[in-house]
Amino acid sequence: MVQTRLMEIAVACAFALALLASRPTAAGGFSPAVGDICRAEARAAEKSLQLPKMILSAISLAESGRWHKTEKDSFPWPWTVTSGPKSYYFADKQSAVATVRRMQRDGIRNIDVGCMQINLHYHPEAFASLEDAFDPTANATYAADFLKRLFKDSRSWHRAIGRYHSSTPERAAGYRDKVNDLWREERIRAATLRREAVKTAYRERQAAQRVAREANDS
Predict the structure, then answer these.
(1) Where are the beta strands (DSSP E) in the chain?
(2) The whole model's pTM is what?
(3) Cα–Cα distance for residue pair 63/42, rounded to 1 Å
(4) SS3 135
(5) For the purposes of burial, counting CB atoms within 10 Å of the CB of 215, is it exposed (0-12), middle (13-18) or buried (19 or more)?
(6) What is residue 51's DSSP assignment?
(7) Largest CA distance in the chain
(8) Would you state the torsion angle of the CA atoms of residues 85, 28, 117, 3, taken in this order, to the nearest 10 degrees?
(9) Non-local CB neighbours of 42 within 8 Å, separated by 6+ positions
(10) How far is Cα 185 from Cα 55, in angstroms, rounded to an integer?
């Protein structure tokens, strides 16, 4: 078991070094709008399965969050691939799928994919194909279902969050703290966006009424 795990780590490290040259988006910019796809799908899955608001969005940030230098903010990324300590953020779905296929051919089994970083080894039946695994809707939907099952087993959303990452208490606790911080930030962010939307709608109504009054006066 230990020998097998060490071999997987060695293969993953070798693969990571070989992959560095094919990471055009790692150091460059990216569109936050792509990251918002994960947020939107996480929110839809939360509503569909009646999860607490923003819980899945927070987990997606913990799992696949990608820092944007200009925006000074993190965005969950739909084409993220992680094996061991290394995470790769690809510019498109095709590149992510091709990379996972190469990893699997090289004997790497511990691979997390997509917005919610579903582990293909521990969840072999989660998706019909790798293409499905990187589909943000399918990825978020499976994550929502998995989280809800963890909640039913533990009777606690906080315990479910920890177990989403690991059943080892120490690892679960650290992850839970991280997600709880992000969850609080996501709720604040959502409330801020709602207030801004209300203010924008009010200003637009005021402008429309002003135009209408000016038209009547002319």
Answers:
(1) 65-68, 73-76, 80-83, 86-89, 112-113, 118-119
(2) 0.78
(3) 12
(4) coil
(5) exposed
(6) P
(7) 86
(8) -20
(9) 56, 57, 59, 60, 76, 115, 116, 140, 143, 144
(10) 11
Euclidean distance between CA atoms 169 and 124, whole angstroms? 24
- Residue 218's alpha-carbon distances to 205, 207, 213, 215, in angstroms, are 20, 17, 9, 5
Evaluate whether 66 touches 74 at the Cβ level (below 8 Å): yes
Please give the single-letter amino acid code of residue 10.
A
Contact 25, 90 (CB under 8 A): yes
Contacts of 29 (CB under 8 A, 6+ apart): 68, 69, 70
Helix axes 157-165 and 169-217, enclosed angle (nearest 10): 110
User: CB neighbours (10 Å) of residue 31?
Assistant: 11
pLDDT, one tens digit per residue, over 168-214 is 998 999 999 999 999 999 889 888 888 888 888 888 888 888 877 87
**Predicted confidence (pLDDT) per residue in 97-107, tens digit:** 999 999 999 99
